[in-house]
Every structure is written in structure tokens, then in C-alpha cells.
Design a protein that fits this description.
This protein is α+β, with helices and mostly antiparallel strands. The protein folds into two domains: 112 residues, Luciferase, Domain 3 (Luciferase, domain 3, Roll), CATH 2.30.38.10; 107 residues, ANL, C-terminal domain (GMP Synthetase, Chain A, domain 3). It is 18% helix and 30% strand. The strands form four sheets. Strands 4, 5, 6, 7 and 8 form a five-stranded antiparallel sheet that branches. The protein has a four-stranded mixed sheet with strand order 13-12-11-14, sandwiched between helices. A three-stranded antiparallel sheet has the order 1-2-3. A hairpin with a 2-residue loop joins strand 9 and strand 10.
């Protein structure tokens, strides 16, 4: 993009369907922080909460992103259950007293000491294995650094009769990648509890209707290749 439009200012933005826009990173900071989603818009209030929904203090932190402000919608059409789950009263200590309703995004986000935010992944996609909470994005990032890997998705799976024995599956593309060479490479870069139990290489990974990589569809293909006694988790 820079090569094609060298004079164009780049604004990195992040937003929720439930609240339109949340944050942006100004052009002056893009080169130094290309993985950041920036800071809140002026009409937006952003904060992080812990696993219990309690507000985390300002400064460096990691938690679920919660958004308030005038851009937050009223809820989901004809879905009272989902609305009640995601749209709630602000947690104690919320910085904007005018907010009567905020949206819990389900996104795990890190905040640095200068207030910049970094998307880490979906809260409901974390893999609980061997007593640890593992971010699939961390595994995918390492897999994508391996020469030749262009797509990667990780997820949990477990024996049907022992659901606590969750292991990690990895699906990559293209199918020409040598898995027997990839695994030792990953072992040198991942903690033992992060290592995939099995890896499947496909020509391309399935995508959803909106063009995003489809984790559920990839996991279904994986489980057909490595069937029972394993189940998706």
C-alpha cells in the first residue's frame, strides 16, 4: 500500500458491529506500532475488565475490552438472550457517568503504558490445556513465520470420555508444507503446553461468507482426519 500510494496517510482502525467504531491509530504512530489498534475515538469510552467483569485500573493491562459512549447500539434485534449477555450496565468505577449501557466485546486486548491498545484474540477462543490458558493466535503467529506457511488456525480438541484432556490442533496451508519439519521448528519456539498434538495441511483454509478464516470449519475438517475419540473443544 505504501509503495502504491506513498503520500497516503494510513489510519489503523478497530470497531465492533455493536458500536460502529472504537479506536484508531494516527498515521504518525503506524510505523512504530503497526500491530496496535490505537486509542479510543473522542465519542467512545474504552476500558478493560478482568475475567470477573471488574474494571482494570489505567495503565498497562490485559483483559476484555468494554465500550461505552454514544455509538453503542440498543442490542441485538429479536435476541434478548444475546443482548443481555453482551449489553450490560457499566462495571463499578466506569469513567463515564452518562453511560447507562456498555457492550462487552468478547475481545482480549492489551493496553500499553501509553494507552495504545493491541488486539490479542477472542475470549471464547482461548484453549484451556494442561492447566494453562493458551491463545490460538500465539500458535498461529509462530506457524506463519515458518517458510511457506501462508494460513494457520489453531484450536482445542479432547477425548469424548475425558473432556479435561484438551489438546491443540493446527491446520495450515498450503498442503506442500512438510509437517515433519514444521513440528521441530515450532517446538523450539513454543512452550510444551502450546505445542499442537496434530497438524493438518490443506491446499487452502475455509473462509466464512465475509471472507474471514473459518476456525469452526477448519476444526471440522481436522476432526474428520483425526476422528473419535476426539471431539471439538
Amino acid at each position: 500500500l505504501r509503495a502504491a500510494r506513498p503520500q497516503t496517510d494510513l489510519y489503523l482502525m478497530y470497531g465492533l458491529t455493536e458500536a460502529f467504531r472504537a479506536s484508531f491509530l494516527p498515521p504518525a504512530e503506524v510505523d512504530a506500532h503497526p500491530d496496535s489498534i490505537g486509542r479510543a475515538f473522542s465519542a467512545t469510552v474504552l476500558a478493560l475488565v478482568d475475567a470477573h467483569g471488574q474494571l482494570l485500573p489505567e495503565g498497562e493491562a490485559e483483559g476484555e475490552l468494554v465500550q461505552g459512549g454514544v455509538l453503542v447500539t440498543a442490542g441485538y434485534f429479536n435476541d434478548a438472550v444475546a443482548t443481555a449477555e453482551c449489553f450490560r450496565v457499566p462495571p463499578t468505577g466506569w469513567p463515564n457517568p452518562e453511560d447507562r449501557r456498555v457492550v462487552f466485546s468478547g475481545d482480549r486486548v492489551r493496553r500499553d503504558r501509553d494507552g495504545r491498545l493491541y488486539f490479542l484474540g477472542r475470549r471464547d477462543e482461548q484453549i484451556k490445556t494442561q492447566g494453562y490458558r493458551v491463545s490460538p493466535e500465539e500458535i498461529e503467529a509462530e506457524a506463519l513465520r515458518y517458510p511457506g506457511v501462508v494460513e494457520a488456525l489453531a484450536f482445542g480438541f479432547a477425548p469424548a470420555d475425558d473432556p479435561e484432556n484438551t489438546r491443540i490442533g493446527l491446520v495450515i496451508a498450503p498442503e506442500t508444507v512438510a509437517i515433519n519439519a514444521l513440528h521441530p521448528w515450532l517446538q523450539a519456539r513454543l512452550a510444551p503446553y502450546q505445542m499442537p498434538k496434530h497438524t493438518l495441511a490443506l491446499p487452502v483454509l475455509p473462509r466464512s461468507n465475509n471472507g474471514k478464516l473459518d476456525r469452526s470449519a477448519s476444526r471440522a475438517i481436522f476432526l474428520k482426519q483425526f476422528p473419535s475419540p476426539f471431539q471439538a473443544n
